[in-house]
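Hi R.,

Here's the chain you asked about this morning:
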Amino acid sequence: MTAAVFFGCAFIAFGPAFALYIFTIATEPLRIIFLIAGAFFWLVSLLLSSLVWFVAGTTVGHKDGPVQKYLLIFGVLVSVLIQEAFRFAYYKLLKKANEGLKAINPEETAPSMRLLAYVSGLGFGIMSGVFSFVNTLSDSLGPGTVGIHGDSPQFFLHSAFMTLVIILLHIFWGIVFFDGCEKKRWHTLLVVLLTHLLVSALTFISPHYGINLASAYTAMVLMGVWAFFVAGGSCRTLKLCLLCQDKDFLLFSQRSR
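And the predicted structure, written out as tokens:
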């Protein structure tokens, strides 16, 4: 039973991301490099968040009660701010790299910022999902029985679906965020930041799994629709895709801007 839970939750959490990597990233070496770089940027943001958390925890000490609760809220807030700051820094780096590629070889078609937004978002999402779920996933192998002391037995399943939504949201956030930077629509960046804070704050009500997942997946659907149209999609292309009449996959047909 523990093996079934382990593999089932692993496929739920990372299956879609793995499929996206295989079909849209793995065949292009340059995209793999950008994906790894995006994952590295997220890791650096995690390192800085950990340092802030360590300093704040050392300053506060081992106080109980509301202090620890406020410290946790502070940690989530700082972590989200740092992640989005590093997303912006990665955008600036990719922008410079794209301009450099065009200057070195004008005849070579450089990757579009829309494509790079998708790749970087996937890198952020995969690394975020791995760090948030790998320890929980290893515990699913046992020993022990979830819910034996009255807790919900759906803990692992809920964690898997929450990890999945975070990975997909990072992809959508990346696409919308980069588009906002390209068009200098700074309110778009604020929306990404606020939705990131909202979804992260949902973890504070984790025992209420229904409310948690429903709210997170609602945010994911809304951001996914926004990212779809931002990436150049339309009702017509969606219809052609669903009817298997679109010969060019959206990400592969993007032109450099």
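The chain has a mean pLDDT of 83.

Let me know if you need anything else.
M.
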